[in-house]
Amino acid sequence: MPTGTPLNARTGAGGAPRVLVVIPAFNEAGSLPAVVSELRSHLPDADVLVIDDGSTDGTRQVLADLDVGWLRMPMQVGLGAAVRAGLRYACRGGYDAVVRIDGDGQHPAGVINRLLEPVLRGDADVTIGSRYLSEIRNPRTLRRGTQYVLGRILSVLTRQQVTDPTSGLWVFGRKALQVLRDHHPSGYPEPELLLFLSRNRIRVTEVQVRMRDRLAGRTSLTPRRMGAALARLTLLLVVVPLRSAVGARDD
């Protein structure tokens, strides 16, 4: 079971939507203070929850000095499982929407409201920040080429446009939260998550965003892991269609 500190809830005054920002973090001590500060500037009424996935770099001490809630996993469980812990927290807290951003500073907080709007209006159940929605040039790097192939495969399988299959910037509405609290994929989850959402008729739309380089540390999304994602996707082509759609929980 994760340990943590509770939030002092900010959202929901006057009937406004309650929004929780979930930040899965592994060894992001160098970036988290700036990430949280920027969130406070652009989303002053949102609650912030950091999921510390077994960090060893001083993230624990940094969290103690930030005005955020946090959960600490008892061991490194992986990105997907860390996000799932945050979604469960949001469901228990009665939030209307969850924003998932990375803890490395790549996702500008100023774009989040554009992702929230379709979900809070009821036009989508999930929105994804895409770096490549308006891209017309052919990919020029191995990493981008792998993302392009992965996106094309997912577009065919889900029958919707997928241009950024590894984006870490997501917004989940209530319907998606109730399903994903128990079924969010583990590991590096984005491609499998897109298949799962399509299988369960969760409405997903992409929103064009411009992202930045990480503020500190180094990326975990290496070409080797991108290749592993393609291999896993091949397996999922068989597994996911055989699964029954899941129902949302009411509690």
Summarize the structure.
The protein is α/β, with parallel strands linked by helices and 251 residues long. 39% of the residues lie in helices and 15% in strands.
3D structure, described in words:
The chain is an alpha/beta fold and 251 residues long. The chain has one domain: Spore Coat Polysaccharide Biosynthesis Protein SpsA, Chain A. It is 39% helix and 15% strand. The chain is built from 8 helices and 8 strands, in the order ββαβαβαβαβαβααβα. The protein has helices at residues 32-42, 59-64, 79-93, 112-121, 142-158, 174-183, 190-199, 223-242; strands at 3-5, 19-25, 47-52, 69-72, 97-100, 126-130, 170-173, 204-208. The chain has an 8-stranded mixed β-sheet, with helices on both faces. Helix 3 crosses helix 6. The longest helix is centred in the C-terminal third of the chain and has 20 residues, at 223-242.
